Amino acid sequence: MAVSTPAVSKWNVEGEALCPYRLVLEHVTSRWGVLVLIRLLERPHRFSELRRAIGRVSEKMLTQTLQTLERDGLVHRDAKPVIPPRVDYSLTDLGREAAEQVRALALWTHERMDDVEKARHAYDEARAAGARAS
């Protein structure tokens, strides 16, 4: 007997771009969201060190990503009242849980990349053979 996963079936039925589940999934799995979550698993970071650690992310995009993850309850922003201002970002318990899931997927892609490359190569060869046959 097949077991239905309520959240997954709801995503398929809803089909709306603004479905709350899809939005959170988009935030957690976005290009920069993944990198922020994985990096913050190590320890809290200041904005500038997080930006350096991630690399090639604009200040604006990192700010937006952190604000989105903070709004979703995944990241905690700790602004210290000192001069110059100091802001540290860390994961909440919910964020740590999400980050561990994202890291597991990232590790899986790393471990299985050879298989993905083989599949891509086989696909490309089959497509090229089909194009030559036409």
Task: Offer a quick outline of the entry.
With 134 residues, this protein is mainly α. 69% of the residues lie in helices and 10% in strands.
Write a structural description.
This protein is mostly helical and 134 residues long. Helices cover 69% and strands 10% of the residues. The protein is built from 7 helices and 3 strands. It has helices spanning 6-14, 20-29, 31-42, 47-54, 59-71, 93-111, 113-133; strands at 45-46, 75-80, 86-91. A 3-stranded antiparallel beta sheet has the order 1-3-2. β2 (75-80) and β3 (86-91) form a beta hairpin. α3 (31-42) packs across α6. The longest helix is centred in the C-terminal third of the chain and has 21 residues, at 113-133. The protein is elongated. The model has no long low-confidence stretch (mean pLDDT 90).
Notable traits:
10% strand; 7 helices; 134 residues; three-stranded antiparallel β-sheet; 3 strands; mainly alpha
- How many strand segments? 3
CA-atom Rg in angstroms? 20 Å
What is the count of DSSP helices, taking H or I runs of 4+ residues?
A: 7
Oligomeric state of this protein: single chain
Helical content stands at: 55-70%
- Topology pattern, helix = H, strand = E: HHHEHHEEHH
What portion of the residues fall into strands of 2 or more residues? 5-15%
Structural class: mainly alpha
User: Could you give the distance between the termini?
Assistant: 44 Å
| General shape | elongated
